[in-house]
Amino acid sequence: MESWKVLEPSTMSKRGVNTLECITLRKSKAPANKSQLKFSVGDPTHDGNLVAPPSAVDALVRCVEGNKCNGYPQMTGRPDAREAVAQYWGKNFAPQQSAHCKGENVVFGCGVSDVFIVSLTSLCDEGDNILIPKPCFSFYDFACELYSVEARHYLCNHEKDWEIDFDHLRSLVDGRTKAILMNNPSNPCGSKLFTTTHCGPHSCLRGTSPPVDRG
User: Fold this and answer.
1) Which one of 67, 116, 154, 203 has the minimum C-beta count within 10 Å?
2) pLDDT at residue 137 in the model
3) Is 146 contained in some domain?
4) Nearest to 93 by CA among 182, 177, 164, 207
5) pLDDT tens digits, residue range 94-119?
6) What is the extent of the structural domain holding 181?
7) How many domains is the chain built from?
8) Mean per-residue pLDDT of the chain
9) How many CA within 13 A on the CB side of residue 30?
10) What is residue 27's three-state secondary structure?
11) What is the C-alpha separation between 101 and 103, in angstroms, rounded?
12) Residues 114, 178: one domain?
């Protein structure tokens, strides 16, 4: 019987290393009298300390029992859900510009990693660059390596609760900068990288044109 041919990994798959996955899956032994703590696990539900609120559970049950959402939704998300997110954002985060918060500008995805890949491949060609915070969620670097996009890290000041150094951020922008990622609150630091009051006076994007992902 002819054996299966082992396929070689693609060039793209060999461009980068998912360091977070390597750390998470790495096997190590704790001393006999100690339990092991894995700081690499980023799942807040891992220990059962974070549960879905009853309102979310009830809404999901009603959705399943109603049999009105059994088909395939649009790739970008259901229009009513996208509109709900836009209204929530406008009311709570951009009341002065709520008229510009529209459902058509909201895109749903399967987790942050999926949305980041969609954004990256939609905006960037090989050799382009995006600006991401330092420190950051390591998957961002991995995804950029896969698609040959340069990840430029702008500094965050640990002495000021990890606020963005906007002067350093602006110094990294050039003609091939396609996006600026502002992960707020910060992953992995958990702090607010910026507030509306903090961001406004700096006018960090004045004279530049890249879109901003405030994930």
Assistant:
1) 67
2) 86
3) yes
4) 182
5) 888 888 899 998 989 888 888 899 99
6) 110-213
7) 2
8) 83
9) 6
10) coil
11) 7
12) yes
